[in-house]
Amino acid sequence: MTAPPDRPDPVERELRTAMQDAATRWEPSPAPVDAILRVGRARRRARHRALAAVVCTVVLGCGGAVVHQWSGSGDGRATPLPPAGSPHSPASVPAKVTERVGGGTAGGTTWSVTLELYREIPDDYPGDDPRFPPPSGTSPEPGTSLLCQRTVIGGVRVDHQGGPWSGCAVVEGAHGFNEQAGLFGHTDKAVRGFRVLVVQPGAEVTRAVLTLDGGGTRTAGVTSLPGTTYRAYAIPLLPGETVAAVDEYDRADRRVSHQTQWN
């Protein structure tokens, strides 16, 4: 039996009341803003790492003819990083690590090369070297540590006019990537006079042989900065000497790189 037309149906009234109560109590879930931001940051980091790998592999030089980015292995292999939880984790690295790469006396001139890593970027560090800006259109993620190369010739540090942080670069902690090479001296952008070839090679390189134009060779072993992946070797050049080639070898004495861009 149905309700009279002039009176509301009690079933309909109950349904309407229940729907209104449900609509009043329902609150939309908050947007997952934190998750979205985390994903965005992860994607940006991945793009930055991919771009940095391309730049280091493709770019042949920066800052003129005396500084070069090297791919290290010469065959496209990436430099391996220590596994997580290794004995040299960031927490185990001292606030400052220093290691002498090479030095001595050549032709009556004293020379030395030292690597320094500051686990945290010093407060008075002004920023990246303006002479070597990042490629146009890139915005690499900032690093957390500072790696410095101190080259001293005749008792005077190369590029000391640039201040205490000249020769330093921001890197991504103790296990970052910084393969590069350069000729360093006091005169004419290191194209003449007494110079030192300093190379931070790939992880597989253990020694290098420099061949001089006109004959003669010099050999240097690779020195590691303790507790880090950073490593280097250094070879002095007397005034008038020029480089024909630099060959790098691994632990099994296999040649892994042949560089001739120093001509």
How would you describe the overall organization of this protein?
By secondary structure, the protein is an alpha+beta fold. It has one domain (35-259). Helix content is 16%, strand content 31%. It has 2 helices and 14 strands; from the N terminus they run H-H-E-E-E-E-E-E-E-E-E-E-E-E-E-E. It has helices at residues 10-25, 33-58, and strands spanning 67-68, 96-106, 109-118, 145-153, 156-157, 168-171, 180-185, 195-200, 207-212, 217-221, 223-224, 231-237, 243-249, 255-259. The strands form 3 sheets. The chain has a 5-stranded antiparallel β-sheet, with no helix packed on it. A hairpin with a 5-residue loop joins strand 13 (243-249) and strand 14 (255-259). The protein is elongated, with a radius of gyration of 30 Å. It starts with 9 loop residues before the first helix and ends with a strand.
Walk me through the topology.
Blueprint: H1 10-25, H2 33-58, E1 67-68, E2 96-106, E3 109-118, E4 145-153, E5 156-157, E6 168-171, E7 180-185, E8 195-200, E9 207-212, E10 217-221, E11 223-224, E12 231-237, E13 243-249, E14 255-259
Antiparallel strand pairs: 1-7, 2-3, 3-4, 4-5, 4-6, 7-8, 8-12, 9-10, 9-13, 11-12, 13-14
Transmembrane segments: 50-70
Keywords: Membrane, Transmembrane, Transmembrane helix
Region (Disordered): 74-108, 122-143
Short note summarizing the structure:
Keywords: Membrane, Transmembrane, Transmembrane helix. This protein has helices spanning 10-25, 33-58; strands at residues 67-68, 96-106, 109-118, 145-153, 156-157, 168-171, 180-185, 195-200, 207-212, 217-221, 223-224, 231-237, 243-249, 255-259.
